[in-house]
Amino acid sequence: MMSLPLIFLLIGCCFAAEKSASYNVDPSETSVSGISSGGYFATQVQVAFSALIIGAGIVAGGSYNCGGQMSYTSSKHKVYMISGTSDSTVGVSVMTQLYKYYSTDGQFIPDSNVVFKKDLKSGHTFPADFDSAGNNGCGSGLLMGWDGFLIP
């Protein structure tokens, strides 16, 4: 039986697809990203809608008893994963399990399409490549690398 939240998600997707045409969005270039619980959700969405999504960016997330089958098209997906060495909320071991889910255990996605950054000196946050607020040069940083990986 389909759960009520999933029904609302699907209804929202219908409205989003209609609206996205006015923003010059290419549905074939859609990826999903999230941090923490959003990272778990991004994993779920990528699995459940693997035929429609080209990849995922997951920061401090993990797998969640994924209730869908990966499509054969998922072998073309790109996945970028980030885990901080000081993250006590979602540790590196959880993200390592997700890495194994994608590439080692299930062989869903070729290893060459999965990037796993697990040596970043950060906590449970979205890491950046600068020391403090205000000293980041515009147009540089880890986020730019992430975007270039998912959509060249």
Tell me the number of helical segments per DSSP (H or I, 4 or more residues long): 4
Unreliable sequence segments? none
Side-by-side strand order of the widest sheet: 1-2-3-4
CATH-assigned homologous superfamily: Alpha/Beta hydrolase fold, catalytic domain
InterPro entries: AB_hydrolase_fold
Keywords: Signal
Signal peptide: 1-16
What would your notes on this structure say?
With 152 residues, the chain is of the alpha/beta class. The protein has 4 helices and 4 strands, in the order αβαββαβα. The protein has helices at 4-20, 37-48, 92-105, 142-150; strands at residues 31-35, 55-59, 78-84, 114-120. The protein has a 4-stranded parallel sheet with strand order 1-2-3-4, with helices on both faces. Keywords: Signal. InterPro entries: AB_hydrolase_fold. Residues 1-16 form the signal peptide.
Quick gist of this model?
InterPro entries: AB_hydrolase_fold. By secondary structure, the chain is α/β, with parallel strands linked by helices.
Key words describing this protein structure:
single chain, 152 residues, alpha/beta, Rossmann fold, four-stranded parallel sheet, 4 strands
Question: What's the structural blueprint in terms of helices and strands?
Answer:
Blueprint: H1 4-20, E1 31-35, H2 37-48, E2 55-59, E3 78-84, H3 92-105, E4 114-120, H4 142-150
Parallel strand pairs: 1-2, 2-3, 3-4
